[in-house]
Design brief:
The chain is an alpha+beta fold. It has ten helices and 27 strands. It folds into four domains: about 35 residues, no CATH class; about 220 residues, Thrombin, subunit H (Beta Barrel), CATH 2.40.10; about 90 residues, Pdz3 Domain; about 90 residues, Pdz3 Domain (Roll), CATH 2.30.42. The chain is globular.
Length: about 450
Amino acid sequence: MRHLSARLIVPALCAFLSVSSPVSAALPLGVDGQNLPSLAPMLKKATPAVVNISTKTKIQVEDNPLMRDPFFRHFFEIPNAPRERETSSLGSGVIVDARNGYILTNNHVIDKADEILVTLHDGRQLSAKLVGTDPESDVAVIKVEPKNLEELPIADSSQLQVGDFVVAIGNPFGLGQTVTSGIVSALGRSGLGIEGYEDFIQTDASINPGNSGGALVNLKGELIGINTAILAPNGGNVGIGFAIPSNMAANIKTTLIEHGVIRRGLLGVNIQDLSPDLAQAFGLNQTQGAVITAIQPGSPAAKAGIEPGDIVLAVNDRKIKSGAEVRNIVGLLQIGDKVHLDVLRRGETASLTAEIAAPKLTQEDGKKIHPKLTGTILGNAPPNAPTEGVIVEKIHSASYAFRAGLRPGDLLTMANRQPVRTLEDLRTAAHGRNELLLNIQRGDGAFFVMLR
């Protein structure tokens, strides 16, 4: 009831302020005998769980070419030890497990840090160690000594709605802990190119540099997101901030604590959004969903019976609006997890179940396969390739392989007269051999190249 009444009083308060006495007059503590709504009681409980994080990183300084000359260094008595400079950064974090001292933050806050220092709300400074990090989602977990800590309870971010009031707590510009408020502006924001896996909460609560890793909380003081990024053409807040949903952050936290790394698996599908044109082509009335465009041979999707042209309606009982949602859900699953897909196929619905498998090697530096392939980046041929094989994704124009005739887009189908379907096949065929005889398919033609 208190939560609801506070929302109802806000418009009345705004009207009161617009007609009140001059600005210099103090605000009243109540109106008609009722206390004015305030976030202060909630913040007294929530802010002790939000910490400031400072890091120090040592970077090796690139020397002038003269400094690499041993005679020059000896003549001027310059030490041989490489020169280093120290950089520092500031961010925020959220204590989510007071008993064990675990803190959630962003990967980019602590990335490559040599030292991590956590400053608590009461002024204590604690040294932290890295537990694990996931650059793809920009989530990291660090740990401090668990002594007299306060934690934030984690709310179910799937229950959020556009228009819900939220509060951002963090350390903007290194000024110290700061609180801003706003609403949920949008949900499920993706395709921003900020992280590999994006399912952001968008908010107009002011988020500025240094807020990264801080808390986005609801009016109950529960964690609903980790502040991550801002849309700021001029470097400042313009009312568009993004936070990682608490459900995603909590799942990643659990995995990082248990394993130290995220072990993402493979479903084996290519997917795109269901556009109005595609919906019309498939004879559908709906315009939300995702279309399976290709299946990797031998993948969990192929074994589950998923087919190109299937329209994904739901994944693990979550309704799907876009291809990005499918990617985010599958990307958070671990090897061995089951994934249930509701699909529409030729006008009929079907439920399919696949088991997430360990990803196969899909890209490799050529020099790790054979010295003569130094300067190339190789990958397994995509599902839409004319045949199975290994594709030359990139090649340096100064490399031996380029001079021998290899070009980007070439498909290697045989090596030393052995069929090549995958990178593993190429590695096996090249192992222990000084020479490498490659059969290459380029466009409609095919030819041999000898690397010796």
